[in-house]
Amino acid sequence: MIRVPSPALAGEGQGGGASSSLLPPLTTIRVLSDGRAGHEAQTLGVAQALGVTPDIRCVVSRHVYAALAPFAPADPRDGFAHAPPYPDIAIAAGRRTIPALRRLKRDSGGRTFTIYLNKPANGLSAADLIVAPRHDGLRGANVFSPLTPANRITPERLAAGRAAPDPSIAVLPRPRIALIVGGDSRHGAYGAAHIAELEHNAASLLAAGRSVMATASRRTPTALRERLQRILVAPSGCFWDGEGENPYLSMLANADAIIVTGDSVNMVGEAVATAAPVYVVPPPGRRIKIDAYLTALADAGAIRIWSGALADWRRAPLNATPDIARAVAQAYSAFAGPRR
């Protein structure tokens, strides 16, 4: 069993970016993708922090295989995902990728070092290394438990976003408030009261002389999307309507404060990777793990729960991705050492 460093020893992700020398030269990485943006942000973020451009292969399992994942075998139609030439490292996220990840491990004769991001439903045997955020409550010798999930936000990308902001953001007067909106999930749906509250928050910020730039997700209810689009207009409002490139990164980079809905662990994690004050709007529904995550971030001084008003406070960026990359490199070194 590969043992990994304790996140407490690795720090809380407040360091700089990972070095491109974390892995031996010519190390190859394959990412198994289920097509979900949140999962790709994590897998590609880890590969990026390791300094390797990965080979991305999509898992598009047929219904019966997808429904039974991760306990079903890999769909034969996904053979490309686990075909040779076998990579040194394979990174996956999303339960539908696990059968292909395990098949890749088997077909490579055990040579490929497998990594699964988030808590796998089939336990610790899902991969050689499991990176499960602390709020998932997973423990094991092959588990690394950072405070936040991996992402692709880096100081360099944020600096580039500030140097060349999206035109729709550059014209907004300061202070600029980013409103990052998620939506319905299996834990709860946004009802009329939640939608009205978010609309009121945006309108109040505008009335107080702030600019508000907002982006929504695929999960955002149509009613909420329409209300925000109606009030966030020039000269002080901006709402990305889904057309053209999403200015999400530009919003994060140029925000004087960020308000994010708490229904997405990834969105909150990306927000706290910036240096802006971050406020989280509690999501609807039953949310034990989300509450644990938000409590840990609040205890770390990374967020405040939105109470309806902005405050003057400062915080340091918090990003666990460099720590995750170092844990991967250390675990891979232990795995590959005897084989070299």
Automatic annotation (TrEMBL):
Cited InterPro entries: Elm1-like
Lineage of source species: Bacteria, Pseudomonadati, Pseudomonadota, Alphaproteobacteria, Hyphomicrobiales
Biased composition range(s): Low complexity: 1-11
Stretches the record annotates as Disordered: 1-22
UniProt-recorded name of the protein: Nucleoside-diphosphate sugar epimerase
A Pfam family per the record: Mito_fiss_Elm1
Organism (species): Methylocystis rosea
